[in-house]
Amino acid sequence: MATSATTSAPLIEKHTIGYVPPEDRHGKVRDLFTLWFGGNIAPLPIVTGALGVQLFHLNLVWGIVAILVGHLVGGVLMALHSAQGPQMGIPQMIQSRAQFGSLGALLVVLIAGVMYIGFFASNIVLAGKSLHGVVDSVPVPVGIVIGALGSGIIGIIGYRFIHVLNRIGTWVLGIGIVAGFGYILTHIQTDDFLTRGSFNISGWLATVSLAALWQIAFAPYVSDYSRYLPANVPVAATFWTTYLGSALGSSLSFVFGAVAVLATPVGMDTMDAVKLATGAIGPLMLVLFLLSVISHNALNLYGAVLSLITLVQTFAYRWIPTAKSRAVISIIVLLACCFAAVGASADFIGHFVDMVLVLLVVLVPWTAINLIDFYAIHKGQYDIGSIFQVDGGIYGRYNPQALLAYAIGIAVQIPFMNTPLYVGPVSAHINGADLSWVVGLLVTSPLYFWLATRDSAYRRRLTSGKMVNSL
Question: I need a labelling partner for 399 at 20 to 30 A (CA). Which of 21, 154, 176, 407 fits?
Fold first, then answer.
């Protein structure tokens, strides 16, 4: 379906966190498929997917099953967030003020910003390693800086350029990863490719969780990339194009990582295993992955910058920053991440994965609250003007019902957690499987709905002010 409201949208994005008016809406809903498919054919999901066989000791078959289950389940939540974009026309984190209040949303915004800065730093490390793998004379620190600069330029240009690059990347990277699979499967270098590892319930559940949480990690900014589409784009169309693109692209990358490490001797670094396993086409694969990580990482920089702008705008509510402000903040974040990544330890990626698992414990209840509020309570009807007011307008500075459900949603996950900081008693009893995200979703969703619908204030909000963007 063509969904272009304008025939010539500017290449450099002029909006930041402000509402995108109808005359500035543009794009096609199918762009969401290419964005999330192309964006997920990248080194970081390949490295993450390999953990199912490397760290959790699953064999190939059970590893693939766990990967598919995790992405298919987690992708539902991620795509439901994406479908909010055209209806709201504002970034995801700004919208959270309607659920938590203008000040109540600050914690979630801060956590999302930290997580995406971590994603950005991790990806520029992978870019540096990939560039060094392609050209030995380029040291990893230099490669890190080059990768960061490339992502920075894309992120500063913004929304439209990100979509354009991923339309191209979907075809190039899609063909590339299929060719990579073909080469690996016809040049297996191990005798235990199908027999290494075995089924174990804790490892299987851990891999499912890792895949599902990969999808949920996009939730705080997925609708940022659909908010420019016209408001009349069907919710179902936005959902399915996002869901299929993200679930398919992520699953391919996760499985590719697992296949590469099983096709090479035990103990190899994942990207080294990819280079060895792809043999003659290995250098080409590394070039494609290098370009992919630079392009994909622009999303992390873009999301981090919007989160930081949201934090500042909470207190400077009259300030709706321009493209210039976004560029300046992007440069500051880029420089800080370069400094941290160049001086990082060799196990930076491992530490980052640990950090994401911890942060997602506090993001899962936010996901539940946001989706229940949007689809079941407000049904897509919000007062955009109130969202940008310093006192939260009709939503207030704090929403006690959301904050209570959020706190309980975090607390109930603790016994089921398995993170580097803490292993809960239930997780320890089931051999380390982390089911915290499942429990968090199942408890927080009905709890918030019950609390919110018992509160007469929410009914007043539905009938107060000028509601826009009805589902």
Answer: 21
